[in-house]
Amino acid sequence: MSACPNFAAEALKAPDLEAAVDQAIAACDGKPRSAVRALLVANRFLERELEDLRASVSKGYVRGRLVSHAEAMAAGHSGER
Q1: Which of 2, 5, 19, 46 has a Cα-to-Cα distance from 13 of 20 to 30 A?
Q2: Which of 59, 58, 53 is nearest to 69 (CA)?
Q3: What angle do CA 6, 42, 5 make, to 5 degrees?
Q4: Where along the chain do its domains lie?
Q5: What angle, rounded to 10 degrees, do the helices at 32-56 and 17-27 form?
Q6: How much is the pLDDT for 49?
Q7: Rg (CA), the chain
Q8: CB neighbours of residue 9 within 10 Å
Q9: Got the DSSP string for 2-69?
Q10: If you ran DSSP here, which 8-state letter would residue 2 be given?
């Protein structure tokens, strides 16, 4: 789990996490593999949306504080600097 953001440890302790997992699997007719696939597709969509938003932010405003997902992964980070 080293690639996960710091908040992942706290999120895993959330009391409603198990209920959310059950709900995701139930939404996919009880098929865990389908639930994982759907969540990966949703995550990819959100990553692309985030990249689009980052691209639209003024470079002068962020002054290098934002890095792309690809740059973060290459550098071994998981998000903003």
Answers
A1: 46
A2: 53
A3: 5
A4: 8-75
A5: 110
A6: 94
A7: 16
A8: 10
A9: TTS-THHHHHHT-TTHHHHHHHHHHHTTT-HHHHHHHHHHHHHHHHHHHHHHHHHS-HHHHTT----H
A10: T
pLDDT-based confidence at residue 81 (cuts at 50, 70, 90): very low
- In the DSSP assignment, the letter for residue 79 is S
- The token pair at 30 is 């009880």
User: pLDDT by residue (tens digit) across 19-67?
Assistant: 889 999 999 999 999 999 999 999 999 999 998 988 887 777 666 666 6
Tokens in use for 74? 């290459």
Rounded Cα–Cα distance for residues 8 and 1 (Å): 9
**HSE on the CB side for 14, CA within 13 Å?**
12
Query: Which segments of the chain are extended strands (E)?
Result: none
Amino acid at 55: A
Phi, psi of 76 (to 5 degrees): 80, 15
Q: How far does CA 32 lie from the centroid of its chain?
A: 19
Report the pLDDT value the prediction gives residue 72, as an integer from 0 to 100.
67
